[in-house]
Amino acid sequence: MKKAIVPILMSAMLVVPAVSHAEKQEAVKQIAPKTEQAMQKTGWVKEGNTWYFYNQNGMKQTGWLSDGGKWYYFDGNGKMKTGYIVYQYEGYLLGADGAMYANKGWVQYGGKWYYVHQGGKLQHGLLEYNGKTYFLNPDNGQMFTKAWIGEHHTGNYFLEDGSMAIGWTLIDNKWYYFNDKGLSYNGWLSYQGSWYYFIGGKMQTGWIEDNGNWYYLNADGTMKTGWLKDKGTWYYLNANGTMKSSANSWDEGWLDEGGKRYVFAYNGAMWTGKMCEGGTC
């Protein structure tokens, strides 16, 4: 009886390994698809320095994506965009994390200021805000600062804080005067009882000629009247600011003041010394 048991045990030993190997082969077949599925990219993936978003089918997202209550934009290659973008003729601003600025108000990004309307669209052109006027670049939405728009020195100027200049403004050590529409003044300006003169928007000082007449403007820009000594020579400015001279007629060159008579040459300089009147000395 003992001898008969040995062949039976040996047969059993030969069968068991064969079944065990078959089970392993089946297990490998079942595991393999799971391994391939785990390698498929989904969700946010950073490749190099660029972020992508893969949908549930493993495809790269393009265009707009809403995720976690924020909006993101991906170009045609699936790259997440940051900064200023244009979509359907509207500008939008995306932060360094790619999220769109969507709340209404001012936003500073990259050292520049932008104005965002509710929903994310950026302001371009003129903006009225809290009683002041601002200008946002039509090309990139950035607020203009220390810059002109319109014809140089005769249009509008925007200050360092972005607001449009109104009234007296010092620009590059030159004085300008802007009216209530922000346009710089040219020609004569009457301001608080004094007259000023502007050329190319800039306030003038010293001698100027206008419409054939000479005027003198003080260092503060105000028009001079009365006696003026300039470089050692005396002149006289009439009440309307015109320089007294005999250039047009001899009679215009006379001034009677304090019981004395003064005579001014064609260039406005006061005569000194002996002179002849009517050809008789």
Describe this structure as you would to a colleague:
The protein has 281 residues and is mainly beta. It contains one helix and 23 strands. The N terminus is likely disordered. This is Glucan-binding protein. Keywords: Repeat. InterPro entries: Cell_wall/Cho-bd_repeat.
Oligomer: single chain
Q: What is the average per-residue confidence, as pLDDT, rounded to a whole number?
A: 86
Give the termini separation. 174 Å
| Strand/helix succession | HEEEEEEEEEEEEEEEEEEEEEEE
Structural class, by secondary structure, is: mainly beta
Tell me about the largest β-sheet.
3 strands, antiparallel
- Total number of helical segments? 1
Helix percent reads 10-25%
**Contiguous uncertain segments of 5+ residues:** 1-25, 27-36
Radius of gyration: 43 Å
Strand percentage: 35-45%
Q: Taking strands numbered 1, 2, ... along the chain, how are they ordered across the largest sheet?
A: 15-16-17
* Principal-axis shape: rod-shaped
Cell wall-binding repeats: 41-60, 61-80, 165-184, 204-223, 224-243
InterPro entries: Cell_wall/Cho-bd_repeat (IPR018337)
Organism: Bacillus pseudomycoides
Protein name: Glucan-binding protein
